[in-house]
Write a structure and sequence with these properties.
The protein has about 375 residues and is α+β, with helices and mostly antiparallel strands. Strands 7, 8, 9, 10, 11, 12 and 13 form a 7-stranded antiparallel beta sheet that branches. Strands 2-1-3-4-5-6 form a 6-stranded antiparallel beta sheet, sandwiched between helices. A hairpin with a 3-residue loop joins strand 8 and strand 9. About 35% of the residues are buried.
Length: about 375
């Protein structure tokens, strides 16, 4: 037998079961273009519960593997009733991570983004136990790395692809390869990265980072090394505290551990919510030199800010900034976690060797 749940995206979310019930009835009849989040959810579900016809593994997809391609605002997804207890926690966690709502009319439950459940009795937090599903079929390091890429592609990339980001592995780095969402802008390449520092098919230790690699003359870019990129930093990670790798790590260290596929999905969902809310707007403001210079040196926010770097000093030099000395001084005071005023004062003197580039882009900071 088939058990049907409905999945949709709507802002704002309903506040009561009655509102959700009425909204589902309306969305069920409302034509709509294909929602890419439905396709991303379908991909994640099939990865977690493959649709095989080998007679050995029972598939929950009685009507065939879902693809999420529907022409209405509400997607009616059918699941084998006998497997619903295994599928539902995974389905709900993946859907909520994508910002989707799951409506279960048979149990009278609606699962909302933000990890909330509405019932006729009220609203309660969603708190699933660790699901019994084993999404990673193959053992070994390659399986764990491939699984991470698949979950990022399903849960994170759909939020950034409309802004021009593409997913790739950055290889040949000094330490570990980095899974990165990248886009090219007039200022340079922007990257949102997660670097697996150790992993298996059941755990991932991740270092999260974001940076801008500006377009500079090659000799000036080399002079900036090792600070030839501009990090986007954060001073604390309260919503991800449960995933800290060790209790003694500093609040600003973006080092996290996910034990099991369920925890990985939760982590990626929470990180994505923050990145869309705070990180992406800052990156959007830095797509060109004028925008970057407006935001550079802005008072550090605990959410995200442009970290002082020699590359930033070089950009201001190319823009013909008449207040380079003041900028270098502010860089030295702002550098997190340890202020280094002498560093930027020394590097400022080195820019005299690149006088030919001063003002070459003639976009003075506003």
């Amino acid at each position: 037998m088939t058990y049907v749940v409905h999945i949709w995206e709507h802002h704002p979310s309903p506040q009561t079961w009655a509102e959700a019930d009425a909204l589902q009835a309306r969305l069920d009849c409302q034509p709509a273009p294909p929602n890419p989040k439905f396709a991303a959810l379908a991909e994640g579900l099939v990865q977690a519960f493959p649709h095989r016809r080998d007679g050995q593994t029972r598939s929950p997809w009685i009507e065939g593997a879902p693809d999420g391609r529907v022409d209405h605002a509400s997607w009616a997804l059918g699941v084998d009733t006998d497997l619903m207890d295994r599928v539902l926690p995974v389905l709900v966690n993946q859907a909520l991570a994508l910002g989707l709502t799951v409506y279960d009319g048979q149990t009278g439950e609606v699962f909302l983004p933000g990890n909330w459940c509405l019932t006729p009795e009220g609203r309660t937090p969603v708190n699933w136990p660790e699901p019994a599903v084993e999404p990673v079929a193959a053992a070994g390091l390659d399986a764990g790395r491939s699984y991470l890429e698949g979950r990022v592609r399903a849960l994170v990339l759909p939020h950034f692809a409309p802004s021009g980001f593409q997913l790739c592995w950055r290889t040949g780095l000094q330490t570990h390869d980095a899974l990165a969402m990248v886009r090219d802008t007039a200022l340079g390449q922007q990257r949102i990265e997660m670097t697996p520092q150790s992993w298996s098919e059941q755990h991932w230790d991740l270092w999260m980072s974001s940076e801008i690699e500006p377009r500079l003359p090659p000799d000036l870019a080399k002079w900036c090394e090792p600070q030839h990129t501009i990090p986007l930093a954060r001073t604390q990670w309260p919503e991800l505290a449960a995933f800290r790798r060790r209790d003694e790590q500093k609040p600003y260290e973006p080092s996290f551990r996910c034990m099991g596929p369920h925890a990985l999905d939760q982590f990626l969902g929470l990180y994505t919510q923050w990145a869309v809310r705070d990180l992406l707007p800052l990156l959007d403001g830095c797509v060109d030199l004028a925008g970057y210079l407006r935001l550079d040196g802005r008072e550090a926010s605990p959410e995200v800010f442009l970290q002082a770097a020699v590359a930033g000093l070089a950009l201001a030099h190319c823009a013909g900034d008449p207040a380079l000395a003041e900028r270098a001084q502010s860089y030295g005071q702002q550098r997190v976690p340890n202020p280094r005023p002498d560093l930027f004062h020394r590097r400022l003197g080195g820019l005299a060797g690149f006088a030919q580039y001063f003002g070459m882009q003639a976009q003075a900071p506003r």
